Amino acid sequence: MVCGQRAKSGVSPGVFMKHTEIVITGIGVVASNGIGREAFWGALRKGVSGIKPVSLFDTGSIKSKQAGEIKDFDAKLYLGDKGLRLLDRSTKLANVAAKLALDDAHFTVTEENTDETGVVLGTTLGSVWSISEFDKTALVEGPRYVNPALFPNTVINSPASQISIRFGIKGFNTTIATGFTSSMDALKYACDFIRLGRAKAVLVGGVEELCLQTYLGFYKLQFLSGSKDDDQELNCPFDCRRNGIVFGEGAAMLLIEDAEAARARGVRIYARISSLGYEFVPYRINKYHRLGTGIRKAMKEALGAADLDVEDVDYISANANSTPEADRIEAVAIREVFGSTAQKIPVTAIKSMVGETFSASGAMQLAAASGSIKEGFIPPTLNLREKDPQCTLNCKDGISQKADIRHVLISCFGPSGVNTAVVLSKYEK
Amino acid sequence: MAPSIKDEILEIVATVIEKEAGDISLDAHLVQEVGADSMMALEILAALEKKYHIVVPEERLKEMTTVNKIIQMVETARKRG
After folding, report:
1. What pTM did the predictor assign?
2. How many domains is chain A partitioned into structurally?
3. Which residue among B16, B18, B42 sits closest to A82, beta carbon to beta carbon?
4. I need a surface site. Which of A65, A218, A359, B80 has the fewest CB within 10 A?
């Protein structure tokens, strides 16, 4: 949307891309159902789930057993042998995704462009394992015997910093830790940098690793499916049997660029970031706001800023993560924002395939929606057998539907009170 | 046959510096010739203290310039107990 243009839907334009058009030119994904853009899109198209029994640690003493784990992940295959010895899993996942995104965009960091290139990463739990292991060594063996070279892993900005170090990106480096919406907040931050003329290209995304400590934390909070009495472990967004999230790990990084710079490079453009809607509605710790006012406002803001009517949206990439409350709140919000169109517009929840990847989830949705736009498909929502009457939406189980996609509305929110929505659009010269 | 202290220390240094043990000359300057840095030196020191249950004062870090000097330092510390 051009500054000053009036939104068709009549709502406040909110955060939008003034004069600067921002596009996605590189995609790097490390997900439980596929590593690399093509494998990830292929899995989404075929409805392949990455959910499986956890093998990274023992789940014998608890009732939840499954996760979107990335089996046999070997960073050396993508990054070479050197410089990986001290890096933790989050940092390796993020670096592999960054490498894949840069390669995909044919973007080489040089002395000429490095100051106009940045890194923004969303991660919240990324250093929990490293902190825990570092402290364990200090407690068990004594503080003298901790490895000082492992200390940098214990800080939350380690994965983002390692990306900048490895690829020589000097423009800026920021970590955003806002829980479920971290990578969407990272996108907003990255777009602001480009819009303000302080960067031409930004590597933006999110990462979370699967580890015992975070898995147990979510389990004890009873966020995980199967963690409550007599619960069956299921990952089924919008289904009336849903009873909590199945945790997922992974990283998704996107190279976003000022469209003018991308055009000058003559590079392939996957999609245009048309708008971002943001609403912060603090409520209670770990509690979704029952009325879902935040996500409604964020969706309306994104549509208004993109100058779209609800009929212009080809599908909605839902936040839905199989949590009873969150899925219902989102379904109600979609019905209110889209009115009678809500029953027709396809809605999909990719978390049914990759699990709740937390800080990485928004970036995963962006990577998935880019595939939809580029290759013309709408991913399915798996395990949707008994539709919840409170979540009556146009969701399909099984495999993807073919469709010409021009605009996708992506929603992402969490119980922290942050609500985000993004309109991703087909790039037309 | 158990590895000698020389081989053990060389292996620790090689692992930290990410080089083959055979490529590190015992008298080569670890920073100027082999590519070590101050963080690597700290890591080597911590690993040696842990392996041999010794305490090496941090001020002796600057003396760890070659593998041979590290071996000497460890042997002295072990004798000291």
Report:
1. 0.93
2. 2
3. B18
4. B80
